[in-house]
Design a protein that fits this description.
The protein has about 1150 residues and is an alpha+beta fold. The protein is built from 23 helices and 50 strands.
Length: about 1150
C-alpha cells in the first residue's frame, strides 16, 4: 500500500529543537491536567532498542505492528502475508508464519492484527486468518464477498466475534470460534479504520466522516460529518473520547490536516481540536483518561493532554526515511515505531519494559542437542546409523538382574499440601488418615468414575426393586479421605448414552431414586438446569409462576408461563426424568438473551460458566417481572395484592445517593435490583478473623462505594460517592457470589472458612438502615424484642471444577424441606446434578473447603406463613382458551360451554400428535464397526388433535392445531407425520396455525382439569410435547393390547386391522384418524372386559400376529376383500364394533 506525503507545514516548535534525548521544557500544567495523567506526562521517553526486522532492500515493508494484549509479544505483518512476533523489549524472535497466501499481491498484505486468549486474528483484503501464538493455523477464511477489507474491531460478544470492513459497501461479522461469516451489514461509504468504544463501534470513512454504530444491530446512531475534508488517516478511542487525524483540502489539493479532532462520545459533540501539523498516527493512553501520543510520518511525536493543549512534550525519532506504522503497548509504557527502511524502534517511558500488566507465559520450544551426521558409503556398516535418536541405554539392552517388579506409584500429593511446604519446608497434618497409617492403594477399585448402568434392554426383565448397597453408595460418594482434593463421582459431569432404542433405553433410575425429578442434558443450554431446580424449590417464586400460568396470559414468548409449565411438570413427574425443552426454546427466541450472553452458542462471558450463570439469574428474574407487567397492561388489571406481584417478591426497593466529590452535586437515581453482587472485605492482617457472612451481606445490599462517574455540573468524569438506601426488602433475596475472576481468590478465602455460610439470616430494616445478623446474634436480638425478618437458605448453585480443560459444570444444592408439607421440620438437602438427584447431609452441602467446589448463586427466602407451597392455583385456572374462537380446521367443532361441554375430572378425551425433525441424528462408527449415537435427533410438535371421548359428539375433534415454526425443518417425515413442506409456514400454509404456547396450554389445562387421555403410544408423544401426564390419567391402547406372553407392543395399524378389519395409515399418518382409532380400541377393550373374553381375544390376536408377522396385509382388490370379509364372518374373533362380544363359554377354540 503506497503512502502519499504532501506538504508538511513548518514545525511550530522549531524554537525548541526536536531531539532523541531529553525532552523539551514542560509548560506549566493545570491542576485538572495533573489529575488526569501527570505521571504519564512527566515521564521521560527514550529509545531503548532498535532492530532491523525487514532488510532495507527487500520490497516487503511491514504496514502493521501491534502489541499483544495477553502476552509479552510484539507482532508485525507485512505485505507478503507473513506475520512475525518478537518477545519482550529485547525483540527476541518468537514465531513467523504466512497467514495470507493470495496470488494477488494486494490480497495478501496484512492490514490489521487483533488478539484474544486463544490466538491471533489477522485481516487481509480478501481473507481472515486465525492462528495460535505458536503459529499453528486454526482456520483461514476466504469468501468471494471479501474484496477490499482493511480493518476490524470486536463486537458486543467480546473476543468471540469481530466486525470487518474496508473499501467496499458491505461489512461482515465473523465468528472467531468457528471461523464463519455471520451477518452482512450494508454501508454507503468505504471504511478506513474501525475502533471500539465502551458503548459504540466507531468507523472512520474515506470521505472524512466518523460514525457511531450500535453494538448489536450495527446501525448508525450518530454521524460526525466533515471531521476531515479528506480521508481519515487514523483514530483512536478511550472511554468516551474519540480523537482523529486525516487529510484536508488546502490550496486546491489534499494535505495532512494540521488539526487533530476530538469528540465526546457520551455527549456526542465535538470538543476543541488540538494543533499538530502532519499528524498521521494517534494512540490514546490505555490507562489515562485524556492522554495521547500523536505522531507524524517524519518521526516527530508529542505526548499531550487532549483536554489541555498547553500540556505537551515533544520528541523526535532518529529515522532516515519515514514512519510507516506505530502502536502503544497495553500498559502505555512502550511505544513501537516502524520506518520504511525496515527498522523497528522501541521507546520506553521512564525505563519501563512491560508490554502488558498480566501476561500469559510464552511457550518456547525445547532445544535438542545437535545430532551427528554419518556419511553413507557402499561399505558403511548399517549399525553405525543406529536406531531413532536416543541418549540413554535402551531398555532392551538392560541385563536381567536389574529388572524387577516395582510397587504401585504413590498417589499425587494435592496442591494444598505442596503449597503449605513452600514457606516452612513442611506441611501440617492433613487429618485425612490416622497418624502412622499408610493408605492401601493396591487392589482398590477406581472410585473416581461412576460406571455406566446397562441399557434397560440389556437388563433383566425383573427390575421391580433394586436397592443400592454400600458398595454402590461408595461408587457415587467416592473415598471420603480424598474428597478434599478430588471431585467425588456424584458431582462429576454426566452424559447420556444412547442405544439403538434411543434415549428411553437409558437407565435414569440408576441415578435418581428420590421423588424429585432431574433434568436431562441432551439439549442446548442445559447448563441452566441447576438454576431452574433452585427456582422450582423456592415456594414464593414457584407460587407466582403457577398462578400466572393459570391466568389468561397470551404472550407467545412469556418465560414466566414457561417456568410455571416446567415447575408443574417436575412436580407431577415425581422422580421421573424431565426436560426443559420448551422453556429453553422460548428463552432462545428472546433477543435480549443472546445479547446478554446467556446462551451457550452466543456467550460473550469468555468461557466463564459462573459469570454466565449469574448473568442468567439476573436476566431471568428481570424478564419474569417484565412478563408479568406486560400481561397486566394487556388485560388492564392489577394483582389484588402484593402477594403475587413479582417486583415485591424479587426486587430490593432502594434509592441511590450519588454525590460528586469535587462540586458536591447530588443525584438520586432509582437503585432497585433483583439480585446483589457480594462485596468482600480485604483479608485482615495479624490472623484476625474474616468478616462474617452477615456483615458481607449488609455491605453488599447497602452499597457504599466511590468510583468514577460523569458529573453534569463539572462536565467531566469525577469521583462519585455512592450510597444505597434500602426502602423495602423482598421475600426472596438472591446473591451473585463472584462477579469476576479478579476477586475469586478473596472470595475463596471467605468461603473456605468452615461454617461461614449460615442457613438463616436475621435482617432488621429500620428507617432505611439495614442490620444483618446470623447464628447466636439472631436469638440474642429476638430476646431483646427486635422484630427481625428471618430469611432461610433455600439453596445455591455451585460450580464444580474437575481436573483437565473445559471440565467445569454447575450443580445445585437445595433444601427441599422448605417446599414440603412441613417447612418447619428438619432440613432435607438434596444434590441436583442434572438427572442425578441424591439426598446429602447438610454439612456436606455447606462445606466449601474443597477447592473444586465454589458457589455461584445463593437464594434466601423470607420465613412467613404465606411463603409456603400453595396449590390453590388449580382452582383458578382460566379455561377461556379452550372455548376461544381461534382459526381452526373445517373438521373441528369447538367446545361449547353453554351446551354443557365442560371438561372435568374423569372426562375422556382422545389425543394424537405428529412431529417433524428439527435436527438430524449424529452417529459415529467405532473401531469394531458398531455405531454409537453422539447426538439424537430433535423432534418438534407439528400437529396435535384432541377428540371428544364421550357424549353425542364422541370422536369429533375439538382441537386440531398446526403449530407454526420459524426454525428450519430438516425433515418433515411426511410418511409418518402427514406434514408437508409449507404446512407450518405462516406465509404459505393452508392450515390454521397457532403458536406452540397456545397448543401446549390447551393440553396443560385439560391435564389439570383431570381429563383422561386415550391414545396409542402416548409416552413418546408426551416426551416430545414436553409434558408429563400421570399414569392415573393415561389410557394407552398400546398397553391395553400388549401381549402378556412376550410383552410385545402392537402397532395401531395392526390392531385396527385385526379388531375392526380396517386399513389405516395407508399412505401417511393422520392424527385425527389415529386418535379416533385409539378411542374405538379403548371402547372395544371395555366391551371385552365386561364380557370376560379378553384373554381369548389376546390369544386370537397372537395367532393372527404370528400368521401375518404382525403386519396387516396389503389391501386386496374388491374380490379379495369380499372373500376376506366372508372368511372373517366365520371367524371367532369379534372384529366389528357392531358385533357384541360373546361370553367366555361360547368362544370356540
Amino acid at each position: 500500500m503506497a503512502r502519499v506525503f504532501l506538504d508538511m507545514n513548518p514545525n511550530p516548535y522549531a524554537a525548541a529543537e526536536p531531539h532523541t534525548g531529553p525532552s523539551l521544557p514542560t509548560p506549566q500544567l493545570s491542576p485538572s491536567w495533573t489529575r488526569r495523567g501527570g505521571r504519564f506526562m512527566e515521564s521521560d521517553w527514550q529509545e531503548i532498542h532498535r532492530l532491523g526486522v525487514v532488510p532495507p532492500h527487500q520490497p516487503g515493508i511491514a504496514p502493521v505492528i501491534a502489541f499483544d494484549s495477553n502476552s509479552e509479544l510484539l507482532w508485525i505483518g507485512n505485505d507478503q502475508g507473513y506475520i512475525t512476533s518478537y518477545s519482550g523489549v529485547e525483540l527476541r524472535k518468537y514465531t513467523s508464519y504466512r497467514g495470507h497466501n493470495s496470488t494477488d499481491p494486494v490480497g495478501r498484505s496484512v492490514r490489521q492484527i487483533q488478539f484474544n486468549e486463544r490466538g491471533v486474528v489477522s485481516v487481509a483484503a480478501r481473507s481472515l486468518h486465525f492462528g495460535t501464538r505458536g503459529g499453528l493455523a486454526q482456520w483461514n477464511l476466504l469468501d468471494d464477498r471479501f474484496q477490499k477489507l482493511n480493518c476490524m474491531a470486536y463486537t458486543s460478544r467480546g473476543t468471540s466475534e469481530v466486525l470487518v470492513a474496508g473499501g467496499q459497501k458491505t461489512m461482515f461479522t465473523v465468528n472467531l470460534e468457528r471461523g464463519t461469516v455471520g451477518s452482512e451489514i450494508p454501508t454507503d461509504e468505504d471504511i478506513k479504520v474501525i475502533k471500539r468504544s465502551p458503548r459504540h463501534i466507531v468507523t472512520g470513512t474515506v470521505n472524512g466522516n466518523a460514525r457511531l454504530l450500535d453494538m448489536n444491530s450495527f446501525k448508525v446512531v450518530k454521524e460526525f460529518t466533515g471531521v476531515h475534508n479528506g480521508t481519515i488517516l487514523d483514530m483512536d478511542t478511550h472511554e468516551n473520547l474519540l480523537i482523529t487525524c486525516g487529510y484536508s483540502m488546502r490550496h486546491g489539493g489534499y494535505m495532512v490536516d494540521p488539526l487533530v479532532k476530538i469528540y465526546d462520545l457520551r455527549m456526542q459533540k465535538a470538543l476543541p481540536p488540538l494543533s499538530f501539523p502532519g499528524a498521521a498516527f494517534i494512540r490514546m493512553h490505555p490507562k489515562m483518561t485524556a492522554a495521547a501520543i500523536i505522531a507524524s510520518n517524519t518521526g516527530q511525536f508529542q505526548v499531550a493532554d487532549v483536554m489541555n493543549p498547553s500540556a505537551l512534550r515533544l520528541y523526535h525519532a532518529n529515522i532516515q526515511s519515514y514512519i510507516t506504522a506505530l502502536d502503544l503497548s497495553p500498559t502505555g509504557d512502550i511505544l513501537a515505531m516502524l520506518d520504511a527502511d525496515g527498522y523497528l524502534q522501541l521507546w520506553s517511558s521512564s525505563g519501563k519494559t512491560k508490554f502488558t500488566d498480566l501476561s500469559a507465559p510464552i511457550d518456547w520450544p525445547e532445544t535438542t542437542p545437535p545430532r551427528s551426521t554419518t556419511k553413507m558409503k557402499d561399505d558403511t556398516p548399517l549399525n553405525t546409523i543406529g536406531m531413532p535418536f536416543y541418549t540413554e541405554e535402551l531398555l532392551s539392552a538392560w541385563p536381567a538382574h536389574v529388572i524387577y517388579e516395582v510397587p504401585k506409584m504413590p498417589q499425587k500429593i494435592d496442591a494444598d499440601t505442596l503449597s503449605a511446604t513452600s514457606v516452612s519446608g513442611y506441611a501440617p497434618y492433613h487429618r485425612r488418615l490416622p497418624r502412622n497409617y499408610v493408605e492401601k492403594t493396591r487392589g482398590v477399585d477406581n472410585l473416581g468414575i461412576v460406571p455406566l448402568p446397562k441399557f434397560l434392554s440389556q437388563q433383566s426383565r425383573d427390575r421391580a426393586s433394586r436397592n443400592l448397597d454400600d458398595e454402590e453408595d461408595k461408587l457415587f460418594d467416592g473415598d471420603d479421605s480424598r474428597q478434599a482434593f478430588e471431585v467425588p463421582p456424584i458431582y462429576k459431569k454426566l452424559e447420556i448414552k444412547y442405544s439403538r432404542f434411543g434415549v428411553d433405553d437409558f437407565d435414569f433410575e440408576f441415578y435418581n431414586r428420590t421423588l424429585f425429578s432431574g433434568l436431562e442434558t441432551n439439549i442446548p443450554n442445559s447448563y441452566m438446569n441447576p438454576l431452574l431446580q433452585l427456582y422450582r424449590f423456592t415456594p414464593r417464586l414457584r407460587n407466582v409462576a403457577l398462578f400466572h400460568t393459570a391466568s389468561d396470559c397470551a404472550q407467545e414468548n412469556c418465560l414466566l408461563c414457561q417456568m410455571g409449565f416446567l415447575f408443574d411438570m417436575l412436580e407431577k413427574a415425581g422422580g421421573h426424568k424431565c426436560q426443559a425443552t420448551n422453556f429453553l426454546l422460548t428463552l432462545g427466541q428472546i433477543p435480549n438473551a443472546a445479547r446478554l450472553g446467556v446462551l451457550e452458542d452466543d456467550s460473550s462471558s469468555s468461557g466463564s460458566l459462573t459469570l454466565m450463570m449469574q448473568n442468567l439469574n439476573r436476566f431471568l428474574l428481570d424478564q419474569n417481572i417484565y412478563d408479568q407487567r406486560e400481561h397486566n397492561k394487556r388485560v388492564a388489571t392489577l394483582w389484588p395484592s402484593e402477594d403475587m406481584d413479582l417486583s415485591s417478591v424479587l426486587m430490593i426497593k432502594a434509592t441511590k445517593s450519588q454525590r460528586c466529590t469535587v462540586c458536591h452535586k447530588e443525584t438520586r437515581p432509582i437503585g432497585d435490583t433483583v439480585t446483589s453482587d457480594l462485596i468482600y472485605s480485604a483479608k485482615p492482617l495479624n490472623n484476625k478473623p474474616l468478616q462474617s457472612f452477615a456483615a458481607t451481606i449488609k455491605q453488599s445490599i447497602q452499597l457504599e462505594t466511590t468510583q468514577k462517574g460523569w458529573c453534569d455540573k463539572c462536565r467531566r468524569y469525577q469521583s462519585q460517592a455512592t450510597r444505597k438506601s434500602i426502602a423495602k426488602l423482598p421475600d426472596i433475596l438472591t446473591f451473585n457470589v463472584t462477579t469476576s475472576d479478579k476477586n475469586m481468590n478473596l472470595a475463596r478465602d471467605h468461603w473456605s472458612t468452615p461454617g461461614w455460610l449460615p442457613d438463616r439470616l436475621g435482617i432488621d430494616l429500620n428507617n432505611k438502615h439495614l442490620n444483618v445478623y446470623q447464628g447466636e446474634e439472631i436469638r440474642h436480638h429476638e430476646k431483646k424484642g427486635v422484630n427481625l425478618k428471618i430469611y432461610e437458605l433455600v439453596g445455591f448453585v455451585a460450580e464444580i471444577h474437575e481436573e483437565g480443560p473445559a471440565r467445569k459444570h454447575m450443580v445445585s444444592f437445595v433444601n427441599v424441606a422448605l417446599s414440603s408439607n412441613n417447612p418447619d421440620g428438619e432440613s432435607n438437602w438434596h444434590l441436583f446434578n442434572d438427572f442425578l438427584v441424591r439426598k446429602i447431609k447438610k454439612e456436606q452441602a455447606l462445606d466449601f473447603t474443597p477447592k473444586w467446589k465454589m458457589p455461584s448463586v445463593l437464594c434466601f427466602q423470607l420465613k412467613s406463613e404465606q411463603n409456603v407451597i400453595d396449590n390453590s392455583w388449580r382452582d383458578t385456572i382460566n379455561t377461556s382458551i379452550l372455548y376461544a374462537d381461534f382459526p381452526r380446521e373445517p373438521t373441528v367443532v369447538p367446545l361449547k360451554k353453554e351446551a354443557g361441554e365442560v371438561p372435568t375430572e374423569g372426562t375422556v378425551i382422545a389425543l394424537d400428535a405428529e412431529f417433524v425433525n428439527m435436527q438430524r441424528e449424529v452417529t459415529e462408527v467405532k473401531a469394531d464397526g458398531t455405531r454409537a449415537v453422539v447426538r439424537p435427533n430433535r423432534m418438534a410438535l407439528a400437529r396435535v388433535s384432541v377428540l371428544r371421548g364421550q357424549g353425542e359428539l364422541s370422536g369429533v375433534p375439538f382441537i386440531d392445531d398446526y403449530i407454526k415454526t420459524k426454525d428450519t425443518v430438516v425433515d418433515y417425515v411426511t410418511e409418518y407425520s402427514g406434514i408437508h413442506p409449507g404446512d407450518l409456514d405462516v406465509n404459505v400454509s393452508t392450515h390454521a396455525l397457532v403458536s406452540l404456547k397456545v397448543a401446549y396450554k390447551r393440553l396443560w389445562i385439560l391435564l389439570n382439569l383431570g381429563c383422561m387421555f386415550v391414545g396409542h403410544g402416548l409416552s413418546k408423544d408426551f416426551r416430545t410435547i414436553n409434558i408429563h401426564i400421570p399414569k392415573s390419567q393415561v389410557i394407552d391402547t398400546v398397553d391395553l393390547f400388549a401381549l402378556r406372553s412376550s410383552q410385545r407392543k402392537l402397532s395401531l395399524r395392526f390392531l385396527a386391522w385385526v379388531i375392526f378389519n380396517e386399513n389405516i395409515q395407508l399412505q401417511t399418518h393422520d392424527s385425527i384418524e389415529d386418535s379416533r382409532t385409539a378411542l374405538r380400541l379403548y371402547r372395544k377393550y371395555q366391551e371385552y372386559e365386561d364380557a370376560g373374553v379378553i384373554e381369548e381375544v389376546y390369544d386370537r390376536i397372537y395367532t393372527e400376529g404370528v400368521r401375518s408377522n404382525y403386519k396387516p396385509p396389503v389391501p386386496p382388490d374388491s374380490l379379495g376383500m369380499a372373500n376376506r370379509l366372508k372368511h372373517l364372518e366365520n371367524d371367532s374373533l369379534p372384529r366389528s364394533e357392531n358385533v357384541t362380544p360373546q361370553p367366555r363359554a361360547v368362544i370356540e377354540h
